[in-house]
Amino acid sequence: ILRTISMWHFLTWSREMSKSNPTSSINKVYVLEQILTLMECTKETEEDQLVECGCFLWDISMKPELATFIFQSHFLSVATKILLEDHTDRLKEVILGILSNVVCNIEIAKALSCNNQLCQLIFYSLQSEDPGILTQVMRLFVAMTSEEGLQERWTKLLEPEEILQRILYIFAGTLSETLCLYSSRLIMNLIWFSDDILKLMLSKLDFINVLVEIIAERRSTENKRQRFDPCEEMMETLIGIAEVLSTNARCYI
Q: Taking a C-beta distance cutoff of 8 angstroms, is the pair 66, 26 a contact?
């Protein structure tokens, strides 16, 4: 009975929200019904249904107006619930992907930063072995370390040696082009902003050798088993990292 009342209040509020934001071509009542499905899910709810709801939200969350609308619909609480519970890697990837989209809004990024439980769950997701989950975690970290008002906080959160070691392990070992790209972007942000991180990566984590190996592998045209297809954006990022190292490495070695 309480759940039914909760759903009724939620949908009533959603219709009012939709009336007050009539400019979007997306039916916002439908959007909120998808969020409600995720919010109210139980062990009996079909996982495929939840993934379908999440994928719809993931697609539309790229639009700034709808990203704000999703956030205003208590999505951070929904994300916390899903990441906390026992769900498939695919659903968790989708939820993290939505978060990675909506934090492009600085106000949403600040709200996420203040949500300690959700931040802990995101960092816990870094221990996953699923490339899809890891890609979205890296995307989210790149977004947060790119925001001027949040750079310092998130760089500090990513500064512990065991976290940097995990990021380098993913960067060096992944077979996923996209995951390697976002890992390299994150590393670029971190070493550009923090001399302490750069010093740690050079002195304890063998970063130069890792980088040289990846660049050499990418530039190789003779190795038929080469892991990656040529990617101009990736090479630009790797070269940018190398330039930062060439400027600063002598200070720390």
A: yes
Q: How far is CA 92 from CA 219, 227, 237, 239, in A?
A: 34, 26, 28, 32
The rounded radius of gyration (Å) of the Cα atoms in the chain is: 20
Q: What percent of the chain has pLDDT over 70?
A: 82
- Mean of the per-residue pLDDT values of the chain: 85
Residue of 101, 78, 93, 64 whose CA lies nearest to 32: 78
**pLDDT for the residue numbered 95:** 97
Confidence of residue 213 (pLDDT cuts 50, 70, 90): confident
- The amino acid that residue 200 corresponds to is L
For residues 184 and 238, the answer to whether their CB atoms sit within 8 Å is yes
Place of tokens 């990837």: 93
pLDDT (average), residues 46-73: 94
DSSP-based three-state secondary structure for 64: helix
CA distances from 108 to 13, 125, 126, 231 (A): 21, 20, 21, 31
CA nearest to 174, candidates 207, 214, 208, 204: 214
**C-alpha–C-alpha distance, residues 15 and 83, integer Å:** 27
Residue 50 reports pLDDT greater than 80 = yes
Alpha-helical runs (H) found in 103-250: 106-113, 116-125, 131-146, 151-157, 161-173, 177-193, 195-203, 207-219, 232-248
Q: How far is CA 241 from CA 215, 236, 237, in A?
A: 11, 9, 6
Contact 161, 213 (CB under 8 A): no
Cβ proximity of 14 and 73 under 8 Å: yes
CB atoms within 10 A of CB 148: 7
